[in-house]
Amino acid sequence: MSEPIIEVRHLSKSFGTHVVLRDVDFTVKPGDVTCVIGASGSGKSTLLRCINLLET
User: Fold this and answer.
1) What span, in angstroms and rounded, lies between the C-alpha atoms of 33 and 15?
2) What are the residues whose beta carbons fall under 8 Å from the beta carbon of 8, sequence distance 6 or more?
3) Domain ABC transporter, which positions (predicted)?
4) What pLDDT is attached to residue 11?
5) Contact assessment for residue 47 and residue 41, using Cβ atoms and an 8 Å cutoff
6) Residue 54 confidence (pLDDT)
7) What is the reported pTM?
């Protein structure tokens, strides 16, 4: 079993009182193909921005 290349645990993000990500957990291992899908405004871009350290 290989070590994860991305591991996210308990990620939460809000803008003021509006919570856009709540307690998100996931792991990506080498060779995995992962898609982030969801409705418009569901937090997909915010999740990616948090992973890339563009959001704090």
Assistant:
1) 30
2) 24, 25, 26, 27, 51
3) 21-54
4) 97
5) no
6) 95
7) 0.86
Residue 48 corresponds to which tokens in the numbers above? Answer: 């990616």
Note the pLDDT tens digit of each residue in 4-37: 999 999 999 999 999 999 999 999 999 999 999 9
Cα separation, 8 vs 25, in Å, equals: 5
Tokens 């009182």 belong to residue: 17
Sign of the CA dihedral running 22, 23, 28, 34: negative
What is the Cβ-side half-sphere exposure of residue 53, based on CA atoms within 13 angstroms? 1
